[in-house]
Amino acid sequence: MPSSILCDHRLLSVLTWAEIDDLMLPRAERWLLKGDISVDYLEYEMRLQRESELLRYRSRHGLLDINNIEKTLFKQQFRFEKDITELLCALMVPNTVTTAQNVKVPGREALCLTLRRLAYPNRWCDLERIFGRHTSVMSSITSKMLNHITANFGHLLKDINNHEWLSPPTLREFANSHSMM
Questions:
Q1: CB neighbours (10 Å) of residue 170?
Q2: Which contacts of 122-129 are long-range, i.e. CB under 8 A and separated by 24 or more positions?
Q3: Which of 54, 63, 98, 140 is the S-S candidate for 132 at Cβ 3.0 to 4.6 Å?
Q4: Roughly what angle, to the nearest 10 degrees, separates helices 39-55 and 124-131?
Q5: pLDDT tens, position by position, 63-93
């Protein structure tokens, strides 16, 4: 038994091309082709759908359950692979980060919040739904994390001429390899 109405030859013989397109195109693409919505609005809607996927990964306390997020969704939302433990060690993130409001947040969550904020400049109120934290707490966490990273690793950026791996030939090679992609 055919699973699609497009397999019915009698039906296809009476449909116009526009009607067939309407059957095959998703609603958003149909609206875009008709000019009912803009590309910016469509991108906004798609971003909201991806963010709503993150809401499935909230714990019973309303906080983001990082361990259960799928790898592809994690990379899409945070711009990093899910092996966050190595990044926590490399950046020397403390086990808990205490905010100005005296809220204790796990270092893992603080790093993920910072990565998410840097990956895409969401408004704090948009991130409230995802992370289950108040805007002032999230702002404080991110500031603390960026201050921590700057305090521990800012010296690496003070004088980039001190690094042998940042020599002009190495940078040229890097630029050439990326221009060929």
A1: 12
A2: 126/51, 129/51, 129/55
A3: 63
A4: 30
A5: 777 777 788 888 877 777 878 889 899 999 9
